[in-house]
UniProtKB/TrEMBL annotation:
Principal localisation: membrane
Top-rank taxon, per record: Eukaryota
Keyword terms: Membrane, Transmembrane, Transmembrane helix
Protein location: Membrane
Membrane spanning stretches: 16-41, 56-78, 90-112, 215-237
Family, per entry: Belongs to the tetraspanin (TM4SF) family.
Name of the protein: Tetraspanin
Species: Meganyctiphanes norvegica
Membrane topology term: Multi-pass membrane protein
Cellular component aspect of the GO annotation: membrane
């Protein structure tokens, strides 16, 4: 009886633990969607600079992972509630596959981070060629927003405007946009000392590298969390099997006890 109560308590404990972990997983999937929307709205200039194709690829990856996490959390909760072995084993299989994908994705992201920066540089050149002073098209708006926000000028330096932009290649006086100028009180006129000298690509690369460490930390946290979830499910399956096995023992013992006295009666009757 004590062993059966102990097994029942173990099942309850691991069920509650699995519920809690999957609720956090559900919240995490919703948070990923909200974060994606926040980035789309507040980081529009960086997204535009990366190009529409790259933006849609990243958005699709985030939505796919979030949907996967949502499905996994629901599957885990349903499997724990009904103690359904098929659901729990399917949960283990899916999460194990996701762990492999996370490791592979993290390694690939680290290996190709420099390629991503070079692609951003190429996209910057294309939008620089389409820049038109005084207009509000995407290329002009993106460059003005980035140069004002990051306090930079050009891709590598201010001279890139005369090198790559049709609007400033043949200009006699003004060789850069007004968004390159430093916004400081007491400074008037257009002089070289009044221009931001740092290139924008360097600053964007620093931002990407800084955020890459944050993304790596998030991936590591999710990896450990999912690994813990797999361990919890394995322990839950073991506890359920132990409980079922202990429930079967009294029935078997009862059958043996029923057979015992009958044999004794027959022997005494003889």
């Amino acid at each position: 009886m004590y062993g059966e109560n102990k097994s029942s308590a173990s099942v309850t404990f691991f069920k509650v633990l699995l519920y809690m972990s999957n609720v956090f997983l559900l919240v995490g999937s919703i948070a990923m969607i909200v974060s994606l929307l926040f980035i789309m709205v507040n980081g529009k200039e960086y997204i535009d600079l990366m190009g529409n194709n790259s933006t849609w690829i990243i958005a699709c990856v985030v939505v796919t992972v979030a949907s996967f996490m949502f499905f996994i959390s629901v599957l885990g909760c349903c499997g724990a509630a009904g103690k359904n072995m098929c659901m729990l084993k399917l949960y283990i299989s899916i999460v194990s596959s996701l762990l492999v994908v996370l490791v592979a994705g993290g390694v690939l992201a680290w290996m190709y981070k420099d390629d991503a920066i070079s692609k951003v540089g190429e996209s910057m050149k294309i939008k620089m060629r389409d820049y038109s002073p005084g207009r509000t098209d995407d290329s002009t708006r993106v460059w003005d927003d980035i140069q004002k926000h990051l306090q930079c000028c050009g891709i590598n330096n201010v001279y890139d405007w005369a090198k790559f932009s049709d609007s400033y290649r043949n200009a006699d006086v003004l060789k850069y946009p007004t968004s390159c100028e430093q916004e400081q009180l007491g400074r008037t006129g257009r002089t070289e000392s009044n221009v931001n000298v740092d290139g924008c690509l360097v600053k964007i690369a620093d931002i990407l590298r800084h955020n890459l460490w944050k993304i790596g930390g998030v991936i590591a946290t999710v990896f450990l969390y999912l690994l813990l979830s797999v361990c919890v499910v394995c322990m839950l399956i073991k506890s359920v099997n132990d409980l079922d096995r202990k429930k079967m023992l009294p029935e078997k013992q009862g059958l043996v006890n029923e057979g015992g006295p009958t044999n004794k009666c027959i022997l005494s009757f003889k």
